[in-house]
């Protein structure tokens, strides 16, 4: 009877609430370069139902044989030099990466290349059906060469990698009112029935706003007028802990946490939000403590966070360093998070020790007042690990080629998908992350986000193991990319966050080059409006498992 009642809630109540909320959010702001940059650095914006509403669509060079869910080409891997079409109207051959009607905005753009001539391509961006491009220049200048914005809005990673083995990332928003077309021209591009050269990979995330949304389109004038704000945005993004907020109140706790015990903080402060959490753990085996000690948070009695401490803060079960828009880990293993976590009445935060050893823990929580309204959402984060999962491997390297999709999370309800991270222990001398992300929103038959490879999804390229940290992407550990070892990848979504009205299913292919058993841990970050359901549940037994050891490593 309880299950029937829950189903009736989702059938009847959620559509009603969705309509009421979207109607209440009808006081739409005008979308522009300035409004989008301000949204990017406003921690509160992602905690509210988007207004105006948008759908996030990703345009990418994924293999076009991937045309049917579960079909013959579902795991096809020629994810390069695939275009929408060719535009020859200007007397030159321009290959189309994106062609879409407005109102909308480009909000995240990633590219990489291989082969002669790929990096010499000319990018052109046409706005609102103008026959003259508003942007026309070399691809590296446009995406990561600071033509439109400085670092980190426009950057390549890792700086330790060869320039031609990096992922090139652009987070500078490009809004458009009526239409947007992006093309690339290169005399090196040769496409035949059996060959595509050079290798050009791209993922472009585009907001598609609801009809009637007022958008001030990108232009040279708009860019010029926004230069001061662009500079300020870059400064804020690299210093998230310097954001001042009023009515700060601090709560803390410290002590030794025995096995099967916890250290907790209760916050009774109406209409408030957590602005920052700092945790420090130490134990005889600190690395195991990072996995066996869990962060649990309840907002207004609703448990939305249950994640091993190391995974939540982006360090896995290894002592690493990183600094992003939403997290920071320093060389003293002080772990910080800057996710904004609002609540109406109270919050209960616990560090739970599921391991056998005693753990020393310190927790510091900074809060501020928050104006809670009916379109506000709770922060959530979940984790699970595929422990010693079989990766089938590619047929060309002796595997079966029977790849599979593994699931980050499935959520039923209304909310925003805000990011994810993976902690992967590889056991062989081969790349583990050939797999593409596949994200289904609101029951769609084909994923609106489908990519070109795991490292591409996390912003770098060519499986490179070099470390990097950036406001929205990071690789604090890459030792497992080519060899046995641990890899940690994070992606925090900003303007490219994915809103959903009724459901989301986020997945990624388990596509390893070699048949092997690996550990694949997945953490997700999201905001949700009750009622909701998720398929990932707390798993105390999983965090008690031993960390990978030498016997788990098999060199090829």
Strand content: 35-45%
Outline: globular
Number-wise, the strands total 34
- Helix fraction bin: 10-25%
Mean pLDDT: 94
**Oligomer class:** single chain
Low-confidence segments, ≥5 residues, pLDDT <50? Answer: 4-9, 22-26
Give a quick precis of the structure.
This protein has 556 residues and is mostly beta strands. It contains nine helices and 34 strands.
Secondary-structure blueprint:
Layout lengths: L1 H23 L8 H8 L13 E7 L24 E3 L6 E8 L2 E11 L7 E6 L7 E4 H5 L10 E4 L9 E4 L3 E3 L2 E7 L4 E2 L4 E2 L1 E11 L10 H6 L1 H11 L11 E9 L3 E8 L3 E11 L3 H7 E7 L2 E7 H4 L9 E2 L3 E3 L4 E4 L3 E3 L2 E8 L5 E11 L8 E14 L12 E23 L10 E5 L7 E2 L3 H4 L10 E2 L3 E6 L6 E8 L5 E3 L2 E8 L5 E19 L5 H4 L13
Descriptive labels:
42% strand; single chain; mainly beta; 14-stranded mixed beta sheet; Jelly Rolls; 34 strands; 556 residues
Structure, explained:
- With 556 residues, this protein is mainly β.
- Among the domains are: 34-241, Jelly Rolls; 245-376, Sandwich (Jelly Rolls).
- 13% of the residues lie in helices and 42% in strands.
- The chain has 9 helices and 34 strands.
- The strands form 5 sheets. Strands 15, 17, 18, 23, 25, 26, 27, 28, 29, 30, 31, 32, 33 and 34 form a 14-stranded mixed beta sheet that branches. Strands 14, 16, 19, 20, 21, 22 and 24 form a 7-stranded antiparallel beta sheet that branches. Strands 1, 4, 7, 8, 9 and 13 form a 6-stranded antiparallel beta sheet that branches.
- A hairpin with a 2-residue loop joins strand 17 and strand 18 (302-308).
- The protein is globular.
- Residues 4-9 and 22-26 have low confidence and may be disordered.
């Amino acid at each position: 009877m309880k299950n029937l009642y829950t189903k009736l809630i989702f059938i009847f109540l959620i559509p009603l609430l969705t309509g009421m909320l979207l109607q209440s959010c009808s006081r739409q702001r005008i979308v522009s370069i300035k409004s989008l940059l301000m949204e990017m650095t406003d921690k509160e914006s992602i905690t509210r139902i988007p207004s105006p509403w948008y759908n996030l669509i990703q345009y990418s060079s994924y293999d076009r044989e991937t045309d049917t869910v579960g079909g013959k080409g579902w795991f096809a891997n020629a994810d390069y030099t695939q275009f929408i079409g060719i535009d020859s109207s200007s007397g030159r051959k321009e290959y189309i990466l994106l062609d879409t009607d407005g109102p909308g905005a480009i909000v995240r753009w990633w590219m990489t290349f291989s082969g002669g001539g790929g990096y010499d391509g000319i990018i052109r961006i046409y706005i609102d059906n103008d026959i003259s491009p508003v942007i026309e220049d070399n691809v590296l200048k446009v995406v990561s060469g600071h033509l439109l914005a400085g670092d980190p809005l426009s950057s390549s990673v890792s700086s330790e990698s060869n320039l031609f083995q990096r992922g090139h990332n652009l987070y500078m928003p490009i809004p458009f009112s009526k239409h947007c077309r992006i093309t690339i021209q290169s005399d090196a591009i040769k496409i035949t029935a059996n060959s595509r050269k050079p290798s050009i990979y791209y993922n472009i995330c585009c907001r598609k706003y609801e009809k009637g949304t007022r958008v001030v389109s990108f232009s040279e004038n708009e860019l010029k007028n926004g230069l001061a704000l662009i500079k300020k945005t870059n400064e804020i993004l690299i210093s998230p802990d310097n954001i001042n907020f009023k009515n700060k109140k601090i709560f803390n706790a410290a002590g030794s946490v025995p096995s099967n015990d916890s250290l907790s903080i209760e916050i009774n402060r109406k209409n408030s939000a957590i602005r920052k959490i700092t945790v420090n753990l130490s134990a005889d085996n600190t690395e195991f403590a990072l996995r066996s000690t869990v962060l649990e948070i309840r907002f207004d009695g609703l448990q939305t966070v249950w994640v091993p401490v190391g995974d939540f803060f982006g360090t896995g079960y290894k002592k690493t360093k990183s600094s992003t828009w939403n997290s920071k880990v320093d060389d003293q293993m002080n772990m910080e998070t800057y996710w904004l976590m609002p609540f109406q009445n109270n919050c209960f935060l616990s560090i739970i020790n599921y391991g056998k050893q005693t753990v020393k823990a310190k927790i510091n929580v900074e809060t501020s007042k928050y104006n809670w309204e009916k379109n506000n959402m709770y922060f959530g984060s979940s984790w699970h690990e595929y422990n010693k999962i079989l990766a089938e491997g590619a047929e060309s390297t002796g595997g079966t080629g029977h790849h599979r999709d593994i699931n980050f999370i499935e959520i039923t309800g209304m909310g925003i998908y805000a990011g994810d991270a993976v902690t992967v222990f590889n056991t062989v001398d081969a790349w583990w992350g050939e797999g593409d992300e596949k994200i289904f929103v609101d029951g769609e038959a084909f994923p609106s986000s489908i990519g070109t490879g795991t490292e591409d999804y996390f912003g770098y390229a060519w499986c490179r193991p070099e470390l990097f940290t950036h406001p929205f992407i990071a690789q604090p550990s890459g030792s497992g990319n080519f060899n046995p070892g641990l890899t940690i990848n994070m992606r925090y979504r900003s303007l490219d966050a994915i809103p959903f009205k009724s459901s989301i299913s986020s997945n990624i292919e388990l596509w390893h080059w070699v048949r092997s058993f690996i550990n694949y841990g997945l953490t997700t970050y999201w905001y949700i409006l009750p009622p909701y359901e998720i398929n990932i549940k707390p798993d105390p037994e999983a965090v008690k498992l031993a960390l990978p050891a030498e016997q788990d490593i098999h060199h090829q």
